[in-house]
Specification:
This is YCII-related domain-containing protein. The chain is of the alpha+beta class. The protein has one domain. 23% of the residues lie in helices and 37% in strands. It has helices at residues 20-35, 85-90, 96-100, and strands at 7-15, 41-48, 52-56, 59-63, 70-76, 104-113. The protein has a 4-stranded antiparallel sheet with strand order 2-5-1-6, with helices on one face. It has a two-stranded antiparallel ribbon with strand order 3-4. A hairpin with a 2-residue loop joins strand 3 (52-56) and strand 4 (59-63). The radius of gyration is 16 Å and the shape is flat.
């Protein structure tokens, strides 16, 4: 994934296990397509954390899957995208707000700016 914008939004959360299949289905088929219609949202890529091992210093460190376990990276033109009327509409569309959001927890959102600004 080569990031083409100067800003990214990181959205991370956990979902109740009994709603995980619905969460993934709605995120992929409704929520992501809706958010991609928002002017200034360039791409969305979703990830699920996994346990891993990593060599560091003189040893190997074993790490558990992160919490929250699900993360989406949104390439955005500017943080103002997130307060636009189009964003406000898109985050409430479809089944996400009523059928998925109530079953998520440990939600984290952060915006990062590139330290090497692109034109």
């Amino acid at each position: 994934m080569t990031i083409q914008t100067n800003y990214i939004l990181i959205s991370s959360m956990d979902v109740a296990p009994e709603y995980e299949a619905l969460f993934n289905e709605i995120y992929d088929t409704e929520h992501t397509p809706s958010l991609l219609t928002v002017p200034g949202v360039r791409s969305i890529q979703r990830f699920k954390g996994e346990p891993f091992s990593m060599a560091i210093g003189s040893g190997v460190m074993d790490k558990e899957a992160p919490a929250p376990v699900y993360t989406a990276i949104y390439e955005i033109d500017d943080p103002s995208v997130l307060t636009s009327p189009e964003w406000a509409r898109a985050v409430e569309e479809g089944r996400w707000a009523a059928q998925v959001r109530p079953h998520t927890r440990n939600r984290h959102h952060a915006v990062y700016a590139s330290v090497a600004k692109k034109n």
